[in-house]
Amino acid sequence: MSRGRRPRRVGEGPFDARVPRTRRPRKGPREWLAAPGMAPDSLRATMLAYLEALQVRHYSGSTVASRARDFRLFAAWCEDRALLRPADVTRPVLERYQRHLFYWRKPNGHPLSVQRQGILLVQLRGYFRWLCRENLLPANPASDVELPRQPIRLPRHILSVADVEKVFAVPDVATLVGLRDRAILELLWASGLRRAEVSALKLYDVAFEKGTLFVRQGKGKKDRVVPLSLRAASWLRRYLGDVRPRFCAVRDEGFFFLSESGDALSPAALTQEVHAYLVRAGFKGLGSCHLFRHACATAMLEGGADVRFVQELLGHSSLTSTQVYTRVSISKLKAVYDACHPGARAGGAGDAAASAQGRSLLQALGAEDDEARE
Question: Looking at 219, 246, 280, 332, which residue is catalytic?
Fold first, then answer.
């Protein structure tokens, strides 16, 4: 008998009642941008040529598809104004489009974020730069367009260790789905993976004997190796032994986390599962998978980890992205504040015990800084 799903008997639970589903193929650039009767030198045709050039340069399929969706918005906006070719787009036209993005409202009535507006304009910059490099346009109309100023934003909500444990207590590990989801939560907390990285994790990417995970082709198509805690490893082993064989379909593609139908868990499904547990734990409206990534980074910094090691753990290409968490992790700032500010000391400015404690703390912090500089 082949290793797969056994026939469902009457009266069994829901785990064997699901019918395997097939994934819908992702739309490509042509499905997003192509229009009947488009001219070879039209905006849509040249945008497709640009996206093909990105594919040749080995950009990921998700990146190319995302840009195709965004370019479709710009192409439709231009066509409504009879701007059909790249030569019709001038700097004033792009500035009008920038104002359009500022005033545009989503179906829920919310405006586009400043970051999203900047991304849309940066993508157009790359497109027009490519047109000039290919001698399809004499001058770049987007070269002098000023991008919106990006605010420095911190994560609004950081789960503490106690908050994380509260979420961990929600899944019912007596059920197959609950045990799988507990393993996912433990992995998110232990290794700070992105949801797409958890979804793409394969069986051979987990090295239990070494206590490591191999993140294959993460964001930016970059591989990295991250540590795996003993606690998370124990839950992953339980999932592999008790749950995955029950979910595994006849055709096993090797993905680590499976749905009840035997498919790999998609990033969207991970978001729904994790968000549901956060809501049940009392953290309504805070987010989902990325909260555990924030919590992991902040806990590491609070524990004294160097920001460069946290950068390596999270897979950030720039240290600037990781330094956001240093503004959230304020344990050292609070310690100095409590030691130095008169209003923070219980006995006021004349409390000798507090002053002595503050001096010793400042000496210890200074020694830490000296060691870091060495």
Answer: 219
Q: Which is the catalytic residue, given 127, 239, 277, 325?
A: 325
Can 180 be counted among the known catalytic residues? no
Query: pLDDT tens digits for 153-178?
Result: 666 677 888 888 999 999 999 999 99
Q: How far apart are CA 140 and CA 87, in angstroms?
A: 10
Q: Is 316 a catalytic residue?
A: yes
Sign of the torsion angle spanned by Cα atoms 308, 195, 55, 81: negative
Lowest-pLDDT range of 38-42, 207-211, 346-350: 346-350
Mean pLDDT of 302-307: 74
Residue 345: DSSP 8-state: S
Task: Give every CB contact of residue 258 below 8 A, 6+ residues apart in sequence.
Answer: 180, 244, 247, 248, 264, 265
Q: Where are the domains of the chain?
A: 29-133, 161-328, 331-373
Q: Considering 182, 293, 294, 345, which one is annotated as catalytic?
A: 293
Which of 180, 194, 195, 275 is an active site residue? Answer: 194
Which fold is adopted by the domain 161-328? hpI Integrase; Chain A (1.10.443)
- Asked whether the beta carbons of 197 and 255 are under 8 A apart, the reply is no
DSSP state of 255: B
